[in-house]
Amino acid sequence: MGQRNPAIKFSREWAMPDLNTLSVAPIRKLVLRYMGSECKSIDPFARDCELATVTNDLNSDTKAMHHMRATDFLDMMLEQEDYNSFDLAILDPPYSATQIKRSYESIGLNPTQEDTQYGRFHSECKTRLAKLIRVGGHCITCGWNSSGIGKKYGFEIVEILLVCSGSAHNDYIITVDKKVEDMSALFTNGATE
Question: What predicted TM-score, i.e. pTM, was given to this entire model?
Fold first, then answer.
């Protein structure tokens, strides 16, 4: 494995919560800092956020460019793009099985048991995104934990932002991982291995 960064930048901010995570000021500021002006970026759960160059959201009433299940969208991108072609990925999926269920039901779909298996769903998205991000690129993961995209995919955590929105709300935990090694060869026999 590549050289590991012993120092993780950590910060804590306070901000009002928002259904659109990337509209929360400190989170948006962090994403823009990693994005840069020539950044090729991807967001499979974009809702109405137009920061990334390629966006997707299951809900067709959003501003996203594509409206597919995230795994189907990422499979499509793997067919259209070279591996290691994106500088940045934003991974802001529903944070729990309950949120997944609500997302589907809000657009008139019934989620399957497979759809609401949060760990499996999250892992399948990470496997696909890891192939699309170039070595030296970043993945910004939003959620209620700091797992990020993961070491097994060749990434290391470089920054964590904790955003508190008051005692009635869970904190946003934003994890920034940098791809330090291409591990795609370990996952070549299918997108979800």
Answer: 0.87
Contacts for 177 with CB less than 8 Å, ≥ 6 apart: 138, 139, 140, 141, 148, 149, 150, 155, 156, 157, 158
pLDDT tens digits, 85-121: 999 999 998 876 677 667 766 777 677 767 666 667 7
CA dist 54 and 44 (Å) reads 8
Is residue 160 within 8 Å of residue 140, measured between CB atoms? no
Task: Read off the amino acid at residue 127.
Answer: T
9-187 CATH choice from 3.40.50.300, 3.40.250.10, 3.40.50.150, 3.20.20.70: 3.40.50.150
Cα–Cα distance for residue pair 115/104, rounded to 1 Å: 9
Any idea where the domains of the chain sit in the sequence?
A: 9-187
Strand partners, 102: none
Residue 189 banded pLDDT, cuts 50, 70, 90: very low
Contacts of 18 (CB under 8 A, 6+ apart): 24
Query: Which of 70, 28, 34 lies closest to 50, judged by CA?
Result: 28
Token duo for residue 41 = 């970026």
For 123-156, the pLDDT digits (tens) are: 899 999 999 999 999 999 999 999 999 999 999 9
Predicted pLDDT at 140: 98
Q: How far apart are CA 20 and CA 83, in angstroms?
A: 29
